[in-house]
Amino acid sequence: MPPASKRTRRYDPAKTRAAVLAQFALVREAVRTLTPEQLARPTRLGDWTVRELAVHLTMALGMLDRYLAEAEPLKQEVALLEWPFRTADVAGQVSDGTRELAASVTDLDALYEERAARTAELFASTADTRLMPTRFGAMTFADVVVTRTVELTVHTDDLNHAVPELAVPHDRQALAACTRLLADALAVKAPGGSVEVRIPPYAVVQCVAGPKHTRGTPPNVVETDPLTWIRLATGRTGWAEALESAKAAASGERADLSAVLPVMS
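The structure corresponding to this sequence follows.
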């Protein structure tokens, strides 16, 4: 696997911070309309209810406060493109923490209001280069903020799946950052240049070992939309399901990504 640090694209920190705040605001507006019946609905996330999912969305930003309260590490330990491959290791801890917080919260709207205000404060006062002692190792604040676009975008889609009538919008910048990070992670997981994966309008990556395409139309092409890609990359949708529903198209004998999906697992 190529070193992730050599393949990381640049993200505009100001746009990323704005995207995180915008997506959280969209979720907040939707969550405050949820009825008790809707909050009790199941989700596609194991045995989580919508209420637990809603609480977890606040935790995606609450971790910033928690880690910034700790001493700053001496050196960076985790590159941005390593993060997608480490999340599965802490899934159990995250699930337990979500249930614990959900059991203690009596005012969901107040929790969202507090989290939005506090995150805006942290964004205004924290340098991009500040190191944070995350569960995965020390990361820069700027990189951690990019990972928050993934958390918020993916779980916004989970919320829409559980409560379709909400139709929570996706902030364009948050969706773009999430799509690009997961596409670049695929290129790290399956290095090569024989398949071109197109996710218009946000990302194009080369991946999978084999003959490298250099000019003209690539012989092996996969194309899909951003949300379908995110569902594929996180295991919400299977490869065969995406093809059968025409949500993804694949052409060429090497254009089969089933062996390398999901990216995050």
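The chain has nine helices and six strands.
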